[in-house]
């Protein structure tokens, strides 16, 4: 097994996109494109290899490459046969290799997403260097070759560093592909150089659409949103702990600076912290004691909407793809609402329709138990198979639907998938919006079988047109 290793977080730096920029256009280009760095007093041109980090990356353990390859295989863009020169085999929906280490899992998803973003460029490099032709690399290993190739060019085609005194797990399949590509480093570097000359850019980062580059830059400076778990604490108690730990409370997110926080204007139980402040929050024990939970703000909108429309004597039904944290947040807000209304005799229940594997059900149950939620009931089976005459569902007044979608509105999809998708971690960037739940609800309501006083909330993380 891999002992504690140095897995670097590769933060992409904005770079000048064009190889040459006329002096007369400098001011205009800087005003129109905030991603471009100033070209005044520019340093000498960078070496031909891609530079994306302050230090040269050291590579990853073999198991990271295998997990990244499986994610890429399940989500890569399948081109029409007439335009397909690089083949990745016919297998889709591969089971993901088990990786328990959180750092390694995050590194694998980062690597897979970067490979997906640059799939066209990586295929151009393979074609230009003839790696796609047999007998170079078999089709069923081409996904592994793609993720290793991305990592190889990211570390400037330098061999992977192996730390002395650390025992590394050796996986022959990954080592074989890496050794083969390393042996072709000169040819691959030349192919990359030709591709960059073709696109007239200094960095392949600039080949990406401007909207993608803006989203990528935004993900590095997003604030942290954390909701208060009323099952274990209260908003006043959490704010008091933060202030006693040296945090200062400001009026709005625009005033966040240093060790500070503020209340979110849309969700009453949500606190906002500056980016990069998570290590300092860990020292307060609020996160480890599950009194405060960091989660994407979008995930807090659904539970808060449910709480705002739920009547005094009503239950909630959750359907779709969500994490145990979202279930716990919903249960926490529902319980808090009944406490403030002094209506403890009619405690609402949050019913959760769990489809998929038993592992997903156990994962949600474990999170709910850890968060101290006792008003949650998991229901096996799919949404459409629920018995509408079942007595336990007669008090349901709000249905919260969160379908699988492309996540095109998410700035940091890796963080979102790792935290939110739970057992559905194979979901990546190429999925389309899943409309089956919405269509079922529409048919169900038109048939007159759904009570008119049930509120349906339909939430998606995708740009919807």
From TrEMBL:
Residues 222-276 form the NOL1/NOP2/NSUN 5/7 ferredoxin-like domain. Residues 1-23 are annotated as: Disordered. Signal peptide: none annotated. It holds the Pfam family NSUN5_fdxn-like. Gene3D superfamilies: Sun protein, domain 3, Vaccinia Virus protein VP39. InterPro entries: NSUN5_7_fdxn-like, NSUN7, SAM-dependent_MTases_sf. Residues 8-23 have a biased composition (Polar residues). PANTHER family: METHYLTRANSFERASE NSUN7-RELATED. This is Putative methyltransferase NSUN7. It comes from Cynoglossus semilaevis (Tongue sole).
């Amino acid at each position: 097994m891999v002992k504690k290793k140095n897995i670097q977080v590769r933060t992409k730096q904005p770079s000048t996109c064009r190889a040459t920029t006329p002096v007369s256009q400098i001011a205009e280009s800087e005003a129109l494109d905030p991603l471009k760095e100033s070209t005044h007093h520019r340093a000498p041109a960078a070496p031909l290899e891609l530079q994306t980090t302050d230090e040269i990356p050291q590579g990853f353990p073999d198991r990271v490459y295998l997990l990244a390859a499986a994610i890429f295989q399940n989500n890569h863009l399948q081109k029409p046969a007439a335009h397909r020169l690089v083949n990745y085999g016919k297998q889709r929906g591969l089971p993901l290799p088990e990786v328990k280490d959180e750092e390694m899992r995050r590194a694998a998803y980062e690597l897979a997403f970067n490979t997906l973003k640059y799939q066209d460029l990586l295929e151009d490099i393979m074609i230009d260097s003839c790696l796609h032709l047999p007998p170079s690399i078999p089709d069923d290993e081409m996904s592994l070759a793609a993720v290793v190739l991305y990592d190889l060019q990211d570390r400037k085609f330098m061999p992977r560093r192996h730390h002395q005194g650390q025992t590394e797990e050796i996986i022959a399949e990954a080592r074989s592909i890496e050794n083969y590509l390393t042996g072709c480093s000169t040819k691959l570097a030349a192919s990359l150089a030709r591709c960059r000359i073709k696109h007239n850019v200094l960095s392949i980062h600039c080949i990406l659409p401007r909207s993608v580059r803006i989203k990528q830059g935004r993900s590095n400076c997003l604030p942290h949103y954390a909701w208060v778990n009323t099952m274990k604490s209260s908003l006043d108690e959490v704010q008091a702990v933060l202030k006693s730990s040296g945090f200062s409370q400001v009026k709005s997110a625009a005033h966040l600076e240093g060790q500070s926080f503020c209340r979110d204007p849309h969700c009453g139980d949500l606190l906002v912290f500056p980016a990069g402040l998570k290590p300092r929050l860990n020292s307060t024990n609020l996160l480890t004691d599950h009194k405060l939970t960091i989660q994407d703000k979008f995930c807090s909108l659904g539970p808060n909407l449910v709480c705002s429309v739920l009547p005094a004597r009503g239950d909630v039904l959750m359907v779709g793809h969500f994490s145990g944290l979202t279930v716990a947040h919903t249960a926490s807000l529902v319980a808090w609402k009944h406490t403030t209304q002094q209506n403890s005799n009619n405690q609402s229940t949050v019913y959760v329709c769990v489809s998929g594997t038993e592992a997903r059900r156990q994962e949600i149950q474990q999170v709910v138990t850890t968060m101290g939620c006792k008003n949650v009931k998991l229901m096996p089976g799919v949404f459409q198979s629920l018995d509408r005459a079942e007595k336990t569902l007669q008090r349901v007044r709000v249905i919260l639907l969160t379908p699988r979608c492309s996540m095109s509105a998410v700035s940091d999809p890796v963080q979102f998938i790792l935290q939110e998708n739970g057992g559905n971690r194979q979901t990546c960037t190429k999925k389309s919006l899943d409309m089956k739940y919405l269509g079922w609800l529409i048919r169900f309501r038109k048939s007159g079988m759904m009570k008119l006083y049930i509120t349906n909330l339909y939430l998606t993380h995708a740009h919807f047109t």
